[in-house]
Design goal:
Layout lengths: L4 E4 L3 H13 L3 E4 L4 E4 L4 H8 L6 E4 L2 H14 L8 E3 L2 H8 L5 E2 L7 H5 L2 H8 L5 E7 L5 H8 L3 E11 L7 H8 L4 E3 L3 H11 L3 H4 L4 E3 L2 H9 L5 E3 L5 H10 L6
Parallel strand pairs: 1-2, 1-9, 4-5, 4-7, 5-6, 7-8, 9-10, 10-11
Antiparallel strand pairs: 3-8
Length: 256
């Protein structure tokens, strides 16, 4: 039985699945979703984009919510499914797309844009087109790094926002109360926005919570957390359950 007792902060459905996976490995956890997904209203742009997917050299899907909503729109507006390469930032998103029968490429080295850009299959898809054009399915806002790097390679990049992430409503001090009540000794976030919501909800309790080990999915989020004062940050190099479990095995609770 692991000594870890973790606070999980993913959206409710993903949080429950992660808790179940951890429980099977003897890791105790408590779910407190700090991200809620709200699908955007369907627009003519969404319909026309999915009806004309064949004009793209590649489609990049940056998250599981983008994959789920994108697949629904794909089923509605793109029949038959165009034969083009699909890419995801991580394995978990790729698994959602693969369940629909799509062949998806993703980096093994980490769940972030930097790892995706280094993926040979993506570079091959771009090089194969005389006028490469890439579609990125994502939520509102988000990093511009991926699009900027692709545009620097002469690629036309189109964004299609499909959802927004919001912070669920909690009472002031609720985060720290749950940590103390459940005797939690570690925090887990799955994205930069998830960390921002953690920081926002922590409020005046952040200095105390910042002393707990914090598990994050990428070097970028690790830097974000350290800059905010987190004292012990573990980069899992991925947001999947397997990546978190590997990090927990590498860093036993007693060693941190």
């Amino acid at each position: 039985m692991s000594a870890w007792r973790l606070l999980l902060t993913r959206p409710a459905e993903d949080c429950a699945a992660l808790a179940q996976a951890l429980g099977a490995q003897g890791v105790a956890s408590h779910c407190m979703p700090l991200l809620a997904i709200e699908a955007l209203d369907e627009t003519p742009q969404q319909r026309s984009t999915f009806a004309a997917l064949q004009r793209y050299s590649a489609v990049i899907v940056v998250s599981k919510p983008a994959a789920r909503i994108g697949l629904r729109l794909l089923t509605q507006y793109a029949a038959p499914t165009p034969d083009l390469p699909w890419f995801s930032v991580g394995a978990a998103t790729a698994a959602v797309l693969a369940e629909h029968g799509l062949h998806v490429h993703f980096p093994d080295s980490g769940d972030d844009s930097e790892a995706l850009l280094a993926l040979p299959m993506l570079q091959q898809a771009i090089a194969a087109a005389s006028a490469p054009r890439v579609l990125i399915l994502r939520g509102e806002g988000g990093r511009e790094f991926l699009a900027e790097r692709l545009r620097g390679q002469g690629v036309t990049v189109d964004y299609l926002p499909l959802y927004r992430r919001v912070l669920p409503q909690y009472a002031v001090g609720e985060l720290n109360r749950r940590v103390l009540a459940e005797r939690l000794n570690g925090l887990v976030v799955s994205s930069g926005q998830g960390f921002e919501h953690l920081l926002q909800l922590a409020g005046d309790d952040w200095p105390a919570l910042a002393r707990l080990p914090l598990f994050v999915p990428s070097p970028r989020v690790a830097e974000q957390a350290r800059n905010a004062g987190a004292e012990i940050v573990v980069d899992c190099r991925g947001a999947s359950a397997a990546a978190l479990q590997a990090a927990l095995e590498q860093f036993p609770a007693a060693a941190l």
